Structure formats: structure tokens, C-alpha cells
Amino acid sequence: MEQQLKELQTEALAKVEAAADLKQLNDIRVAYLGKKGPITEVLKGMGKLSAEERPKMGALANEVRAAVSAAIEGKQSALEQQAIQAQLEKETVDVTLPGRPARAGNAHPLTKVVEEIEDLFIGMGYSIAEGPEVEMDYYNFEALNLPKGHPARDMQDSFYITEDILLRTHTSPVQARTMEKHKGQGPVKIICPGKVYRRDNDDATHSHQFTQIEGLVVDENISMGDLKGTLEVFAKKLFGEDREIRLRPSFFPFTEPSVEVDVSCMCGGKGCRICKETGWIEILGAGMVHPNVLEMAGFDSQKYTGFAFGMGPDRIAMLKYGIDDIRHFYTDDIRFLKQFAEHE
Ligand SMILES: [Zn+2]
């Protein structure tokens, strides 16, 4: 029996040594150390042994088990180590491969135009003022000389949240809020860019959401000449040094007098499709701040005067980039937006 056990040990150790992978090793474990394994089988014959031989055989059987078990464990960690090594080699990174280019996004064409206009006015000493898009009726209309029931309100039908709260129809409430903060003390010199909303039937030139930039200057001795000079600088910087502006009388409730401002067309006055054969393109509305608006904001209209202007960056971007439909700005079609990536 002693001989049998020793042979079994030699046999098992050789098989463990030869095991090629973890599966084979596990099969060996089950075969030799399992309940139906040969060691158990041999020990069944213990009953025939003498009382003094029995414990000796029992001890030897345990030694054999321990030796085989230790060999299996040793082999197992060696095989696991090999597997890790093999995987590492398989997954080697080739650092000489060219990298994948990072996908850069690009600014929205409207953002670009707004930022260009902002830079231009910052260069002339203006600061940028912002305000809420969900606005009170008071700031959106009343503080701008548009009391409840004023007919000009019909031109700016909005989305009302309650009777007194609405989505702002223009960025003018930012002017009203800024003037209020100044508590009757000039100078005020701001531009207010932002999104505005009007109930409208969307088509190629109308969108219920659009963008505005308004400007406001309030100080002593501000005249119509300052307004004209400012807008001339603006038009030339944005559209080109050869461009001119012209002022036509108009009406806005919050300015008096009020003007529409046109810039000369790129066709040089000959007439083309863009200027509808007139040689001029309308770009903004402006005027001297109405004394009522100044007084309502706490400014002494005898001491202070000011001018205000408002323009649509959507329309300016359309002219600048030759875009034929305002809705492109708001539908977020990646094919449209990608055209404005900067290729440097
Ligand atoms: Zn033209």
C-alpha cells in the first residue's frame, strides 16, 4: 500500500508539471484529490492492515494529498501569471501609430457675429449688460413708454407666462433695468445682446426666437451727431471701410426722434438681389431716448440726453454669410453649422 501511494504521488506530480492550462490542472485536481480519486480508493484497503500500520498509512496518505495539493497550487499561480503575461503582450500599444485627431467643434454663426459686434463696441468703451429672458411686463413695455393698451404693443405679441410675466420681446428691458440701477446718474454706456421671443409665423425671414443687440448711451450733451458717428464706425468696421450709412425718419415709442438706419450695399449702389435693387440694406433702428423713458428711469431729462439703437444679429449674419433662411440658425442641423468651422 505504501508503494501504491508513492507511485500515485509520482504520477500526480508529473501530470501537474505537464498541465498546459488551468482547465487541465483542474481536471487533475478532481481526479487525484476528489472523493472518487485513487488515493481514497487505496485507503479503502486500510481495513486489512494491522492496528499499528493503519495510522502510518493514514499519515502517509495525508502527506501525499498535501504534496499533490501544494504542487497544484504552485502550478496554478504559475499558469495564471503566464496568462496575464500573454494578455499583456497581446495588448501592446503601438506608440508609433498616428493619433486620432480630436474632433473640434465650432462656434455658431450667430455667436460669431454677436461676439464680433461685442468686441467692436467694447473697443469704443461700452460694457456688456445682460438680463432675464423671462421678464416682467413693466420692464418689457411700461418702463419703455409702452403702457398697457398702447397700440405699438400689437407689433410685439409675446408668449405670456402670466398676465404680468412674459418672454421678453426685445432686449430693451435690460436698458430699463440698467438705467434704474444708475439711479439718475450718468454716464450709461452699454450694449445688451441676447435672445428674444415674439409670437410669429415662422418663415424664411421670421422666427419666433431671434437675437437682438441693443445699445444705450445716456450722458450730458449727447446728440444725434454722436449716434450717427457711432453707427458709421460700426457699419464700416463690420461691413467694410467703403460702406456708408443713411438715416430715414421712423417711429419707435421709446425714442424721439427715431430713425431707420441703412448701410450701402456691397453692389456699390448699382442695385442687386440682396438690396432689392435699391443700393441700401436696412440694418437697424435707432433714435434719441424719449424724455419719458429717461424720467421713468429716474434721470433728469433736462440734464441728460441719450441715444439707443437696436439691431438683429440674425439678419446681419444672413447678409454676412449669404444665408437665405433665418430658421437655419435655430434648427441645429449639424451640416449647416459645420460650414462655419474655422479652417486654420
Ligand atoms: Zn445691392
From TrEMBL:
Pfam families: Phe_tRNA-synt_N, tRNA-synt_2d
Catalytic activity: tRNA(Phe) + L-phenylalanine + ATP = L-phenylalanyl-tRNA(Phe) + AMP + diphosphate + H(+)
Cofactor annotation remark: Binds 2 magnesium ions per tetramer.
Binding positions for Mg(2+) per the UniProt entry: 256
Needed cofactors: Mg(2+)
SUPFAM superfamilies with a match to the protein in the record: Class II aaRS and biotin synthetases, tRNA-binding arm
UniProt family annotation: Belongs to the class-II aminoacyl-tRNA synthetase family. Phe-tRNA synthetase alpha subunit type 1 subfamily.
Alphabetical list of PANTHER family matching this protein: PHENYLALANINE--TRNA LIGASE, MITOCHONDRIAL (PTHR11538:SF41), PHENYLALANYL-TRNA SYNTHETASE (PTHR11538)
Assembly, per entry: Tetramer of two alpha and two beta subunits.
Protein name (database record): Phenylalanine--tRNA ligase alpha subunit
Source organism: Bacillus badius
